[in-house]
From TrEMBL, chain A:
Residues 1-30 form the signal peptide. The keyword Signal applies. This is Peptidase inhibitor family I36. Keywords: Signal.
UniProtKB/TrEMBL annotation, chain B:
It comes from Streptomyces atratus. Residues 29-54 are annotated as: Disordered. The keyword Signal applies. This is Lipoprotein. The keyword Signal applies. Residues 1-28 form the signal peptide. Keywords: Signal.
Amino acid sequence: MLFVRKALVTASVAISAVASAFVAASPASASVWTDSSSSTSCDSQCLVLFYNTGYAGSHTRFSSTGTGSEGIRDLAAYTFLSSGSGQGMSLKNHAASAKARIWSVDSSVTIYYNSGYAGPCDKLHTNERPAAYKLSKTYNNNASVLFRSAKVSQGCVNFS
Amino acid sequence: MARQDLPVVTSRALALVATVLMATTACSAPQVGTGGKSGGQDMDTRSSAAPSASASLPIEKFALTAQESHTVERAKVLLANECLRGFGLDYRIPEPSPLVVESSRRYGIADREVAHDHGYHLPPQAGQADAAKQPTEAQKAILFGTNREGEQQTTSSDGRTIPPGGCYGDAEVQLNGGPLPESDIAVAATIDKESFKRSLDDKRVGQAFREWSTCVERHGYRYQDPMASVSDRAFDTEEPTQRERAVALADMDCKTEVGLLKTWGAVETEIQTRMVKNKSSTLNRLRSFQKRKMSNADEVIKRLSN
């Protein structure tokens, strides 16, 4: 079953909302949640997106339960949370580097150019703590993120 | 179309391939992969980045196919397990589960069956990693060479040297047969991304989007292009609604009606062909690296399986 993170902000609140330290998950589908940590020492799977290359600048961490497929269909509702350059900017199309913790060899996290898990993509999966010093196809063009816990090939071109 | 192993890639060969690709019509049935050297399994070759059923994009000739990546993964697991044995550990990484391939979403939804069954949602995944089979923290230190905080672990508890990246990372290093050609990979990745970006500005693609939009409006929905429909916030639900499935079906049928996937694919192919030609020596060098890696993987599998 695909659990999808619902948008945190209601229609009446602006997208570039408060950069709070911890954003709580909605009770109905609390399968991907965010905070401002840059640590990939999370319980199951997590992805940290950084505003600058080399894991620098403001960042936001997305964590998932590590079961099934879970993702954020549109990063527009999220901002860079931690202090650092880029804090408060929309996460969508502003990420330059990423670090992840992938807990099993079959798992992966994929960053997509377009929302709705579409467009060219960067897939991080080669080892427990894969990282992109500079994002490849989704550098400043990141619109959705998908965690998977089973091995699926979906046309993210793999050069290594 | 099964990916052909080209011995030498010349710009003339690429131009020829591009012509063939543009003349090819979409196939009606999924095609079976060649299986490759390591014993194949039937595989819908629509694992290509290009959703058009038969053609893959030019840059993919400088990339590992899904099947090849899977072979590399199998070899990696075998090497890593041999390394774990060397450390006296009981833990073994399980054999990689069979390859599962979903059609590319490069151009949004491109699979009518998926649209019908799941709308814009991804098909529910078949298997799932078994939590019970996961290594302990101590085993992970040797397997991945880092602790939970991500700090490198260079020595095991009984004083043995842990290779950088642990057994699993070291397996990749062995298969790479040398340093990863990062800048060559970056060149290829740039082509993958840039061609997509430029295709969005192409007049022919713009025209196809307009025709698609008109068609979709006939079905009662208002979207400027297929990227708008796949990312509609209304579909951010746990399960696809009936409406979402209806929109996705209209999306697919209109794509077929106006030939959007073919046009978009042809435009990207044209753009990529130019870009590939400009970077042919870099890409050929990258291809040599990939071929060496795959040959290393085949050797490992032959040596270490059963």
